Amino acid sequence: MFGKTMLIIISVLALAVLSCSFTVNLPDTGFKTGPTTTDEINVSYPASAGDVAELTLEFGAGELNIEPGIGEDLVAGTAKYNVDELKPVVNTNGNQVTISTGDMEFSGIPDFRGDKYVNEWKFELGSAPLDLLIKAGAYKGEIELGGLSLASLKVTDGAADVNLSFSEPNLVEMKTLRYETGASSVRLEGLANANFDQMIFKAGAGSYVLDFSGELLRDATVNIDAGLSNVEIIVPDGVSARVLVDRGLANVDITGDWEKSGDDYELAGEGPRLTINVNIGAGNLELRNR
Prior knowledge:
mainly beta, 21 strands
């Protein structure tokens, strides 16, 4: 029931993203709101985690805030909500920890854009190695992952407004960074600091900024697949980069020192090389360096 209704939520908000003049009258959900409750969330590292713990955050709709912590817990923070069905549930199975929004039975579509419903997670993550998976629906996210030890990162969301950054270097080598989103506004910053081997970014209609600032420690490959959207790629001065574009009907706009040869764009630099493959059906691709 939750999955089907969440698809409806995402579809409604996606249409709103695509057209600023589009309005929707959301039906009553049948939710009973009450006083806002704040739960303390403290999850220790699983005893059987070995070298790497696996953390999954399943967040439906609302506001999600994540940042590095200073304690020894895997997760520490709070969950604030005013509907009993939104109470988070923590499950541990071996080295796997899942924190999810409670079991909800919808009779309509919840509107988190106003003040009626409250669902807000504020979590700090520990610095021990982990694989992080974030599965979210229609939400606003402020996510800072710099200084953690992420062996892998995967984010899947629907109609979202997200700022995700690595303001400091990831402390371990990340094999894969994968981000899949629907009709959203997403800004990813400090991506060189993520220390990934491969990055995969898949997106529907929306506005996306991929900023590869930070310290590029090794050669890395990025694959971008976007629909009708505006995609801005930022590469710092001095970084060796190559962007190969399969652009369909999309327009390509370049600013800075990029050298163009057909649909191949190169930026001269020293050290490790960043190779970016872009498949964009329509819209705009902006290449920047600074």
